[in-house]
Amino acid sequence: MKNIERGGKAYLLCKRLFDVLFSATALLFLAIPMAVVAFIIVCDSKGPVLYRSVRIGKGGKAFTFLKYRTMCDRADDQKEKLLEKNEIEGGVIFKITDDPRITRVGKILRKYSVDELPQLICVLRGDMTLIGPRPGTPQEVALYDERAKRRLEVKQGLSGEWQVRGRNNVSFTEMIDMDLDYIDNKRSLLYDLKLFFMSVAEIFKGTGK
After folding, report:
1. Could you tell me which of 31, 35, 22, 34 has the C-alpha nearest to residue 200?
2. Which of 26, 36, 55, 117 keeps 20 to 30 A from 157, CA to CA?
3. 3-class SS of residue 52
4. HSE on the CB side for 101, CA within 13 Å?
């Protein structure tokens, strides 16, 4: 695949090393706060602490994606009734403002991206990386055209280009443009670090939904 080895083996090795060191350290220091979040979720609403779903990673390989549950139990069963309210142009990705399935605690967790913390486990085990295109569901990937499928040339990330430069305000086409520009032209250790710190800044702004 074109430019799949951009940055070379040294870049990929250093990127993986940073992923492991950061995710392991973060999980260690955040163990107690994450346990507190889990307890609050259990007290707030019925259902499991973690939301598990299948996502598609590098090369089309499926893996188990983890998030704190921010919606009511069995929220996926209600999704079809809400499809007509989808606000993301193109119909591939589903997103609506004030989703009625989101719990009280879930709104706060999403606002500050706390719900994403369990994905550090995905990063540690190698299914994801800290910086890269966000992984899609099998249903979303099935709707990708050949251009969009190029997102799968690299490991999918916890955060990336479109999260810090548009997040909930970009269309699917714009998201693909950003991801491919990152893959083809911008990937480097310095740029990944820049996106990493920009991602941290976005968390403190509370721009999540």
Report:
1. 22
2. 36
3. strand
4. 18
State the Cα–Cα distance between residues 126 and 116, nearest whole angstrom.
Answer: 16
Q: At 5, is the pLDDT very low, low, confident or very high (cuts 50, 70, 90)?
A: very low
* Residue 190 φ/ψ region, left for φ over 0, alpha for ψ in the -120 to 50 degree band, beta for the rest: alpha
Give which of 69, 73, 99 is closest to 86, Cα–Cα: 99
- The per-residue pLDDT for range 65-121, each reduced to its tens digit, is 999 999 888 777 777 777 766 656 555 666 777 788 889 999 999 989 999 999 999
User: Which tokens is 48 given?
Assistant: 């499991």
Are 151 and 71 in contact by the 8 Å Cβ rule? The answer is no
Closest C-alpha to 189, from 3, 44, 5, 7: 7
Task: Decide if 79 contacts 34 (C-beta within 8 A).
Answer: no
